Amino acid sequence: MSSMRAAGIQPSKDTYTALLGMYRRGQHWDRLEQAVRTMRAAGVHPNADVYNALQEAYRQSQQWEKLESLLTAVRAAGLPPRLEMYNTLVRAWVRVRVRVRANPNLRAKVRVP
Fold it and tell me: Taking Cα atoms as reference points, which of 55, 49, 57 lies closest to residue 13?
């Protein structure tokens, strides 16, 4: 990305989406979130593909609260949430509930809606 900028080329949403996919597949969650921050700072607004990459990253890394807050971010961006986002949220919270019920020690640590 820095070599693109040095050459005067502004990375597009597609460029960022490809980068986010790479970070997601490599499980580089911090780099993925930093790339989204960089994208926004450059004036490139996330689209549905960017939010889907974040959704998959949060699901894979089991960051349920970030996944839940992503729904709010999608709505704030004026995008309609995709059905798969709702499905992922429902599956995530079902898993969390099952784990909490199976392990009473988790009840104090996890907020279950």
Answer: 49
- The pTM (predicted TM-score) of the whole model is 0.71
Whole-angstrom distance, CA of residue 36 vs CA of residue 21: 12
**Distance from the Cα of residue 4 to its chain's centroid:** 25
Cβ-based neighbours of 99, under 8 Å, separated by 6 or more: 106, 110
State CA 56 to chain mean position distance: 6
**Span 49-94, pLDDT tens digits:** 888 888 888 888 888 788 888 888 998 989 988 888 888 888 877 7
Question: Do the domain assignments include residue 10?
Answer: yes
Domains contained in the chain, number: 1
